[in-house]
């Protein structure tokens, strides 16, 4: 009954997040546990700008140079990760802040070096480490910066948090992957789409109806479904407690 929740950068600023996660962790810790993966794109961009760099995105993924890897470590694995873990500890959660680099928790391969540089896609998950933490009652809080398995781009690759969360959900045979963003779900003409079949979602990506950050979420959701995760949702902070909230992605052929 393990759940994997990915928290985007903006939802991390929601005052209700820590309380909501603490309650969910308390309910889930004796029934498979909870894993949190987080983003922090705005914080990375801000630090890049401070250091004289600039942000570039391709289909919702951040192009990353070798120099940028150090910035991502500082902003994502350092500041964002430890702040979120510390806030959860303040609310009574046994949270453990980790990077995908730690014990090769997430192993990745380069995605498209010519366009994206040091950006990767997750290929391996250290399930043993996660199971040790979950079985002991801890809440892993994971920055998606990952180990470069190819050895061609340096020690680390910048992995999109949605992709990392999907890979972890598949590896743990999670019962749900929840991608938390700053909107109630996938919107169409101002209205929430409550359920979206995987082939329809793929078409929305192909015709560029879904783009940018939401495309990355839908891509990750489709990968999780293909990997056997039975339930994928995209929604906001309220959806952590309200399991009926948001857009549910489901496999083609499954009854709606």
Helix/strand layout:
Blueprint: E1 3-7, H1 17-28, E2 34-38, H2 41-50, E3 57-58, E4 61-62, H3 66-90, E5 95-100, E6 106-110, H4 113-116, E7 119-125, H5 127-135, E8 139-148, E9 156-159, H6 161-171, E10 176-180, E11 187-188, E12 191-192, E13 195-197, H7 198-206, H8 212-226, E14 232-235, E15 247-250
Parallel strand pairs: 1-2, 1-10, 2-8, 5-8, 6-8, 7-9, 10-14, 13-15
Antiparallel strand pairs: 3-4, 6-7, 8-9, 11-12, 14-15
Folded structure, characterized:
This protein is α/β, with parallel strands linked by helices and about 260 residues long. It has one domain: Carbamate kinase, CATH 3.40.1160.10. Helix content is about 35%, strand content about 25%. The two termini are about 20 Å apart.
Low-confidence stretches: none
The residue fraction in helices comes out at 25-40%
| CATH architecture heading | 3-Layer(aba) Sandwich
Number of domains: 1
Can you give the mean pLDDT? 93
N-to-C SSE series? EHEHEEHEEHEHEEHEEEEHHEE
How many helices? The count is: 8
The whole-angstrom Rg is 17 Å
Q: Based on CA inertia axes, which overall geometry fits? A: globular
State which percent range the strand residues make up.
Answer: 25-35%
CATH topology: Carbamate kinase
CATH superfamily: Acetylglutamate kinase-like
Give the N-terminus to C-terminus distance in angstroms.
22 Å
CATH class: Alpha Beta
Which sheet architecture does the biggest sheet show? 11 strands, mixed
Coarse structural class: alpha/beta
